[in-house]
Design a protein that fits this description.
Layout lengths: L4 E3 L5 H7 L4 E4 L2 E8 L11 H18 L7 E9 L1 H9 L2 H5 L6 E7 L7 E8 L8
Parallel strand pairs: 4-5
Antiparallel strand pairs: 1-2, 2-3, 3-6, 4-6
Length: 135
């Protein structure tokens, strides 16, 4: 198998090594980002929902930046929400702060019952800017 072109955000490689996955992989002009939750640097969750969502976006943006991208390069988003009936409005009022103006990426929202102690997770695919793709 070919070696993966893995992207690590600053100060979090030990967390990914411990949990045995890559935060993001570059392939064929795209960046595939693992689901990001509102975890602190040690992996523990932010206790409050809004802070958790903000931290998830901050963690995502750190990975995008490490790959030479911004959220403007994101083409597909999947979000996972525990108890979406109760949590959706709280979460979605924060989204405009991170998504910017239209046109927006595609979106799939999935309600789940458990996220390892978290309430929100975001997973994306981004188009790498010209010159960033190492295929």
């Amino acid at each position: 198998m070919a070696s993966r072109d893995v992207v690590f955000p600053p100060r979090r490689q030990a967390l990914y090594d411990r949990n045995r996955y890559s935060p993001a992989v570059r392939s064929n002009g795209f960046l595939f980002v693992s689901g990001q939750v509102g975890s602190r640097e040690d992996g523990s969750p932010e206790p409050e929902l809004e802070a958790q969502v903000r931290r998830a976006f901050d963690n995502l943006n750190a990975i995008l930046k490490a790959a030479g991208c911004t959220f403007d390069d994101v083409v597909d988003v999947t979000v996972f929400i525990v108890d979406p009936e109760s949590n959706f409005e709280t979460i979605w009022k924060l989204v405009p702060e991170y998504w910017g103006e239209a046109p927006h990426p595609t979106l799939t929202g999935i309600g789940v019952t458990w996220l390892y102690g978290f309430q929100f997770e975001i997973k994306v695919i981004a188009k790498l800017p010209d010159g960033s793709a190492l295929s």
